[in-house]
Write a structure and sequence with these properties.
- The protein has two domains: 6-123, 3-Layer(aba) Sandwich (Rossmann fold); 132-234, Arc Repressor Mutant, subunit A, CATH 1.10.10.
- It starts with 5 loop residues before the first strand and ends in a 22-residue tail after the last strand.
- It has eight helices and twelve strands.
- A hairpin with a 2-residue loop joins strand 8 and strand 9.
- 38% of the residues lie in helices and 19% in strands.
- It is of the alpha/beta class.
- InterPro entries: CheY-like_superfamily (IPR011006), OmpR/PhoB-type_DNA-bd (IPR001867), Sig_transdc_resp-reg_receiver (IPR001789), WalR-like (IPR039420), WH-like_DNA-bd_sf (IPR036388).
- Residues 225-247 are annotated as: Disordered.
- Keywords: DNA-binding, Phosphoprotein, Transcription, Transcription regulation.
- It comes from Streptomyces cremeus.
């Protein structure tokens, strides 16, 4: 039992909690359950989880406060559940460091696959390699530290991995499907996850996130990291921009 990974499921809907716990247990995880914020923190203190499936809307203490408190005690991967599909809810979850979010209603099987994916990525040792530098950015993959013009950047795990991917592939167009596969390790999923993370990353490294200079949107194709002084031959020509804007 020492190698069994433990997941804490926090949801005030007993049906959701029971179904999710059942699927996770059948997949081989040990599962603890809580129905509110204080109960989640108490459960996490009793048995430190390897991952938390955390509902955003909870009685007593909302999921954002629970996530912040859990993270204050040490790193733990979090998958946020939200009953609303609005981008604001996703951004709130990502701001407090959630590794992923799932919008209700959801497939329990897909949630189990996402849990496994996040745990695999969290358990990987730091990737050795040279420090990545471009456009005043400096990323140390082994130390998981990022700076811009000497200033420490506060990046979530996904934001760090996304920026590292861009720095390793300057001038190349990266589609959302490719980024989901290479950064998230998923072959499926909600592509808006990528969109939200790109926006969050822009808000932290761009001088004007509304007019990004470093991470460009290539209309109909994806995103491209454009460090200054990149030779023109290394850039892919952008397709014509449509009349309707996309992010």
């Amino acid at each position: 039992m020492g190698n069994v990974q433990r997941v804490l499921v926090v949801d005030d809907d007993p049906t959701v909690s029971e179904v999710v716990a059942g699927y996770l247990e059948r997949a081989g995880f040990a599962v603890d359950r809580a129905a509110d914020g204080p109960g989640a923190l108490a459960a996490a203190r009793r048995h430190r989880p390897d991952l938390v499936v955390l509902d955003l809307m909870l009685p007593g203490m909302d999921g954002l406060r629970v996530c912040r408190t859990l993270r204050a005690d040490g790193p733990v991967p979090v998958i946020m559940l939200t009953a609303r599909s609005g981008e604001e809810d996703r951004i709130l979850g990502l701001e407090v460091g959630a590794d992923d979010y799932v919008t209700k209603p959801f497939s329990p099987r897909e949630l189990v696959l996402r849990v496994a994916s996040v745990l695999r990525r969290a358990s990987r040792p730091p990737v050795p390699g040279p420090v990545l530098r471009a456009a005043g950015l400096e990323l140390d993959p082994a130390a998981r530290r990022a700076r811009q013009d000497g200033r420490e950047l506060s990046l979530t795990q996904r934001e760090f991995d996304l920026l590292a991917h861009f720095l390793r592939h300057p001038g190349q167009v990266c589609g959302r499907e490719l980024l989901m596969r290479e950064v998230w390790g998923w072959e499926f999923g909600d592509l808006s996850t990528v969109t939200v993370h790109v926006r969050r990353l822009r808000s932290k490294i761009e001088e004007d996130p509304a007019r990004p200079l470093l991470i460009q949107t290539v209309w109909g194709a994806g995103y491209r990291f454009d460090p200054p002084h990149l030779p023109p031959r290394d850039r892919m020509q952008d397709p014509p921009r449509p009349r309707t804007a996309e992010s």
